[in-house]
Specification:
By secondary structure, the chain is mainly α. The protein has one domain (4-297). It is built from 15 helices and no strands. It has helices at residues 4-22, 25-31, 36-51, 59-63, 67-90, 96-102, 106-117, 124-142, 149-176, 181-202, 212-236, 242-248, 251-263, 270-287, 294-297. Helix 5 (67-90) packs across helix 10 (181-202) and helix 6 (96-102) runs antiparallel to helix 8 (124-142). The longest helix is centred in the middle third of the chain and has 28 residues, at 149-176. It is a multi-pass membrane protein.
Amino acid sequence: MPNFKMLSVLIPLSVAIGIAAISFSSIFVRWSEAPVSVIAMYRLWLANVLLLPWLAGNWREISRLTGKQWLLLLATGGALGLHFLLWMASLRFTSVSSSTSLLTLEPIFVMLAGIWWFRQKPQRSELVGMGIAVIGAMLIGWHDFSFTLRSLQGDLLSLLGAAAVAVHMLIGKQLRETMSAYVYSFFSFFLAACLLAVYNLFRSIPLGGYGLKEWGVFMLLAAVPTLFGHYLFNWLLKYLRAASVSMTVLGEPAGSTLLALILLNEPVTYKQLLAMMILLFGVWIFLRKKEYSRRKTHKLNGSLDQA
């Protein structure tokens, strides 16, 4: 278990790496022409393949999982699979900035559920920071918002995807109290991919016949936004509240919009750049009160305050 001094370095570093990694997700999805359910399925299964070398070392913990833990893993895996299915589908109907901006409603869902589920009472500064960040994120995608039926369909899919990942985050917070990041991530990824496979088979969506380019995209999604993004956020759930981990994800619209400019030639306006600054300012306000405390470090054996 990392000590307090190590955590004070690892947590900000993990947040920065995670935000940068998930910002590539929408770009990679746009590069693929495969069905979104297939992209999501292979993204998660290939992440499992990359994690396999460490499976034997965690077998003792796996053998001790209870029936309740397996049911919760199935539930969080289902929520994760549904999130990928809905959000990736939204990118077929709307722009990167519009889709990722609507995902910023995730921390609101998480905070509201946290108040009910974990009896967490948000501070005023947290509410202000979240409000500013969400406004900034929405402004990033505002110029792309359209009231055509196709765009509204994409926006709705992204919104439902945000709700699904909020459920995944909250269940993950509960499981990470007694489960390692490796075991939680490995089986939530695996079960999500299996549920997506069932969906593909039910819809008669081909599981094979994809070219080398598609497999390259699947592997990029597995390695970058899944392992360096979602895995790190799963690790952070042990040390931060679910709402705080969700807040760090708000950096994705800014990163994705800049990457879309560079890699997809989607234009970025000065208003969007200003909106990015507003977004990051809101995230800073929310997170500036460090959630870790030396006073409780001994109590949680190195974990953070309010974990």
